[in-house]
Amino acid sequence: MTVADLIVISNRICTPRPEHPHSPTPTCACQACDQDRLEGCPNPHQCANEALEHIHQIEPRLNPLSPDPHHGNFSHTPGRKAANILAKENNHDILFNPSITCKNNLAECFRIFTNPNRISNLPAARNYTRRFNVQYCNISVYTDGACYNNGKLNARSGSGIWFAPNDPRNNTLRIPGTHQSNQISKIAAVIQATFITPPFRPLTILLDSKYMIEGLTDHLHTWENIGWIGIKNANFFKKAAYLLKSRTTTTHFRWVKGHNGDHGNEECNRLAKARANKPRPDILNLDVPVTFDLQGAKLSALNQAIAYRGIMERLMHPRRKTTLENLQTTREAIHRYNDLLETDETIWTGMRQRPLQTRVKQFLQCLKQLIKCFVLLHCFGYISITSTYYVMNLGLFESPGS
């Protein structure tokens, strides 16, 4: 028996028909009970009660009879999607899609790489409060981030939030934690701006980062479908998405060109730089309620490469002692040269890159061949040892017999 069958049987109790009222007795003569007796049921009312009890045992998130939480009318319709496409082409305000419901297709509900301790049986719902039916004015806020020594181990980043001149809501944030970057500071600025703005006030966030806007308006749905596998700064984006989805009104993003004379952007950048210089970091809560923490990756959205990467991310990779010592030696050598502390990631990336230009590499290759010629000429006695002394001191090769 399916859930649909249980709903049909219990409908006589939940939604009685006025023309055929149901009586809570074994001898009920309503049309549904009469039909059940013809099919061999001795007590249709008891069967209807048992069906209703089985439905109530279903978790609230999956129970078809649970009261539907008020989601508002904010999900993207085809018209809103078309309007967003035009807005991106003309640099107008882009509407955020706060949809917190899943598709109706059962195949899209199967997910892997989930955390059993973070699975909720309650549906996600926005926190609506009773208030007067008034039309609230839109709030516009500038956000920006700054980072000194971006991408380095000694990086320091800060965020700035600017509403208006001398506005008490203007805010700054010194990013905590070991991961510091320009991108993180910009995401944290959006988190802070959304957090301090009343959730029932329409909000427009102005920022100079297309990475942020595209991440929260274009890629968010895909990132959630693949379980955030391989996505940098995922915990920051998750927090921003939760705060934006839990708002009870619309949120727009608008891109402004950075350092181009926009007063709000300049002021916001000034606040971010000033805060990045502060020695003590602030507290930034990145926790997401379990009802909004969508777990795992959608099975239908995975390919072989993403699935393999998801497996590798969850495996413990022991680090060899010699590797750690070599990384630290390399880091200290670079620090003595340019006074910067490289991270393990930048060291590995730098080793894989080819920073030398083609002509420089060709010159070094020719120099290497020339040195070999000097060595051969010296071995056969056509050139004296004094002539090769300076070449050997370059340290580019070892002399014969060494």
CATH superfamily of the largest domain: Ribonuclease H-like superfamily/Ribonuclease H
Biggest sheet: strands side by side, in what order?
A: 1-7-6-3-4-5
Q: Structural class given helices, strands, pairing? A: alpha/beta
What would the principal axes of the Cα set say about the shape? Answer: elongated
Features:
single chain, 402 residues, alpha/beta, Nucleotidyltransferase, domain 5, 6-stranded mixed beta sheet, elongated, disordered C terminus
What does this structure look like?
- The chain has helices at 3-14, 31-38, 44-56, 78-90, 182-196, 210-225, 234-245, 263-276, 304-313, 321-338, 344-352, 358-379, 385-392; strands at residues 94-95, 111-112, 139-148, 156-162, 171-174, 203-207, 251-255, 297-298.
- Strand 3 and strand 4 (156-162) form a beta hairpin.
- Helix content is 42%, strand content 9%.
- The longest helix is centred in the C-terminal third of the chain and has 22 residues, at 358-379.
- By secondary structure, it is of the alpha/beta class.
- It has a six-stranded mixed beta sheet with strand order 1-7-6-3-4-5. The chain has a two-stranded antiparallel sheet with strand order 2-8.
